[in-house]
From TrEMBL:
Keyword Protease: no
InterPro entries, A to Z: ExoRNase_PH_dom1 (IPR001247), ExoRNase_PH_dom2 (IPR015847), ExoRNase_PH_dom2_sf (IPR036345), KH_dom (IPR004087), KH_dom_type_1 (IPR004088), KH_dom_type_1_sf (IPR036612), KIX_dom (IPR003101), NA-bd_OB-fold (IPR012340)
Keyword NAD tagged: no
Protein EC: 2.7.7.8
Necessary cofactors: Mg(2+)
Residue span(s) of domain S1 motif: 623-691
Gene that this polypeptide is encoded by: pnp
Family per record: Belongs to the polyribonucleotide nucleotidyltransferase family.
Pfam families per record: KH_1, PNPase, RNase_PH, RNase_PH_C, S1
Protein name in UniProt: Polyribonucleotide nucleotidyltransferase
Enzyme class: transferase
Length: 698
């Protein structure tokens, strides 16, 4: 039965149609926010997937180019693989939803969001986040929701909820907050060094808006919600736990996991599994879930050690950071390089500089974002965790980590006018045991400085973890979590920033939300850790950006010309600019505003290109000295090319002091001579003289 529901959200109308389309999905919400339209569906398989020990949730965000009146590029003329924005949006939808499904649920669930039209002032990403929450809440899929999501901007010190396209362009913050009825369940942010207290205020202002949306969703569920279906639980039998504890005591398990070396810990657990497999060799049912049982046993042991005994697996204090190291210039000939090590997490970052023409072009639904000049890429090879598997290119996790580090560093980059380069940094994971994305931020910051990029400030990142007990007051926040504390803990709260404030946040949790005291403590801890990392480690490796780019980096000279003269420099079909490039070997980029960037490695040739462009765009005045090449000889004189596409004439009477009968007596084709400008002749041609060039002319 078709029903429609509406509410006013941040000054625009949000409408949800239920029962209008996609009736065979378990739940479907046809979302309209302004003129933005997204179809969100939630579907689940009838039976659990066999042989897995995790919840198989997949989230899709499909960008249809017809949504913005475009035909896709390429030969196929249809949408291909998901864009980076689509992948990042899918991850943001996934993070607050996943913890609210039952932990022992093994049915495949797909949340699909198809963007069908885009109103630039009503974010399709936000609409999809709300749509997935509503579609799942009204479906028969077990789900402890609903959730609601709000975006927050910061303009002139004031918060703006679900900002419009124009507001997003001038905002100092792009914050996304998802909430349940009681708590904050997801935070994602990019910010221009926003102070910690302002960020906390923004998070909980968004949380208040989310409560209005949840009340709206509750109304929809009350009228259209299906009864949740029963499912086959995949929980580990209690009798198996009891049998395991008779063979491996809690003290033995604690001893196995209590080490600061990941390989040693893994070897200890492997030994325990071998012993248990031998003991349960006759019980196939137990063997099928033994891996999950050992995982749960480890988890309970680690959580008890941390929460009750305040003991971390590697013996660190609760606020202690693992051993740190930093260095620059470890890779020769590249434009900039740095390595950052934190315990068993090690990142090498390499920076490459190029002309602005090599900035990445983007083809997506956001008309305001068509290119980006800073790219951060993150790679995670299997050897970094001691495993072996073939490389298949970056997955969603790698793309997400790269985007997080990129977001953290964009606020400190110089403008194109200050530093007219495209910039790419690549983080290679050499070793991983927790929070490689934050190590990437530290390594990238140093790599940029080593490359001579005049960033405004160093940026550091760190992650906090969490272990909770039975009540909201029973918890402990951990500074600098390693892999084991991430796997078995409840939170991975990543914060990056400068000394002035926060530039990026990403929060993943496995529980049903965080209280304000937990969020405040985590943000305070990360600030304290960032200051230590920047002052005591990074600054000792490189304290400030180098004054110039390195020997092997391209050099760029930037000049400004009258935009109306751009056509003169480019020439018909690019003939003039290509002639300059061929003659000097440089690369030339010209913006619509008349900013000309000349890029090369030979300083003399770069200056020659500058001189040629200046000649082309300068109005010709009597008395100016030029160097020209004879390109044509006539009875009455010679024609000279003094810049690509620019010609003038020397009359036979102006070639030599003495009278000559034939031009060829003095000049031949290809001769290069100095001339002085005499202005324009009656035919409008530029007129030159060779004989009147001053002796001291340069």
């Amino acid at each position: 039965m078709y029903k429609s529901f509406s509410m006013e959200l941040a000054g625009r109308t949000l409408t949800v149609d239920v029962g209008r389309v996609a009736a065979q999905a378990n739940g479907a919400a046809f979302m309209h926010y302004g003129d933005t339209t997204v179809l969100s569906t939630a579907t689940a398989s009838e039976k659990p997937r066999e042989g897995i020990d995790f919840f198989p949730l997949s989230v899709e965000y499909e960008e249809k180019m017809y949504a913005v009146g475009k035909i896709p590029g390429g030969f196929n003329k249809r949408e291909g693989k998901a864009s980076e924005n689509a992948i990042l949006t899918s991850r943001v939808i996934d993070r607050p939803m996943r913890p609210l499904f039952p932990k022992d649920y093994r049915n495949d669930v797909t949340l699909n969001n198809m963007v069908m039209s885009v109103d630039p002032d009503c974010s399709p990403e936000l609409t999809a986040m709300l749509g997935s929450a509503i579609a799942t809440a009204i479906s028969d899929i077990p789900f402890d929701g609903p959730t609601a999501t709000t975006q927050v901007g910061l303009i002139d010190g004031e918060f703006v909820f679900n900002p419009t396209s124009a507001q997003r362009q001038v905002s100092d913050m792009a914050l996304t907050v998802a909430s349940t009825r009681e708590k904050v369940i997801m935070i994602e942010a990019g910010a221009n060094e926003v102070p910690e207290d302002k960020m906390i205020e923004a998070i909980f202002a968004a949380h208040e808006v989310n409560q209005q949306v949840i009340a709206f969703i509750d109304k929809i569920v009350a009228e259209c919600g299906k009864e949740k279906h029963s499912y086959e639980s995949c929980a580990v039998p209690e009798e198996l736990f009891a049998a395991i504890k008779e063979i491996v005591t809690p003290e033995q398990m604690e001893e196995a996991v209590f080490t600061d070396d990941k390989q040693t810990r893994e070897a200890n657990i492997r030994e325990i599994k071998d012993k248990l497999e031998e003991a349960f060799a006759e019980n196939e049912e137990w063997l099928a879930v033994l891996d999950e049982a050992v995982y749960q046993y480890q988890k309970k042991t680690v959580r008890k050690m941390i929460l009750k005994d305040h003991k971390r697996p590697d013996g660190r204090a609760i606020t202690q950071i693992r051993p740190l190291a930093a260095e620059v210039d470890l890779i020769p000939r590249v434009h900039g390089s740095a390595m950052f090590t934190r315990g068993q997490t090690q990142i090498c970052n390499v920076c490459t500089l190029a002309p602005l023409s090599e900035a990445q072009r983007l083809d997506g639904l956001d008309e305001n974002v068509i290119s980006k000049r800073y790219m951060h890429h993150y790679n995670f090879p299997s050897y970094s965790v001691g495993e072996t598997k073939p490389s298949r290119g970056p997955g969603r996790r790698e793309i997400g980590h790269g985007a997080l580090a990129e977001r953290a560093l964009v606020p400190v980059l110089p403008s194109e006018e200050e530093f007219p380069y495209a910039i790419r940094t690549v983080s290679e994971t050499f070793e991983s045991n927790g929070s490689t994305s934050q190590a990437s931020i530290c390594a990238s910051s140093m790599s940029l400085m080593a490359a001579g990029v005049p960033i405004k400030s160093a940026v550091a990142g760190i992650s906090c973890g969490l272990v909770t007990g039975e009540s909201d007051d029973d918890y402990i926040v951990l500074t600098d979590i390693q892999g084991l504390e991430d796997f078995f803990g409840d939170m991975d709260f990543k914060v990056a920033g400068t000394k002035k404030g926060i530039t990026a946040i990403q929060m993943d949790i496995k529980i049903h939300g965080l209280t304000r005291p937990i969020i405040e403590e985590a943000i305070a801890r990360t600030r304290e850790a960032r200051m230590y990392i920047m002052d005591e480690v990074m600054a000792k490796a490189i304290a400030e950006p180098r004054k110039s780019v390195g020997e092997y980096a391209p050099k760029i000279i930037q000049i400004k010309i009258d935009p109306e003269k751009i056509g003169d420099v480019v020439g018909q079909r690019g003939k003039t600019i290509n002639a300059i490039i061929e003659e000097t070997g440089v690369k030339i980029d010209i913006s619509d505003e008349g900013a000309v960037s000349i890029c090369g490695t030979d300083a003399a040739m770069m200056q020659k290109a500058v001189d040629l462009i200046n000649i082309i765009v300068t109005d010709y005045e009597q008395g100016q000295i030029y160097t020209g090449k004879v390109i044509s000889i006539k009875e009455f004189g010679a024609f000279l090319e003094f810049a690509p596409g620019k010609e003038g004439m020397v009359h036979i009477s102006k070639i030599a002091k003495e009278r000559i009968n034939h031009v060829e007596d003095v000049l031949t084709l290809g001769d290069v001579v100095k001339v002085v400008c005499l202005g324009k002749d009656k035919m409008g041609r530029i007129s030159f003289s060779i004989k009147d060039v001053p002796k001291d002319a340069k």
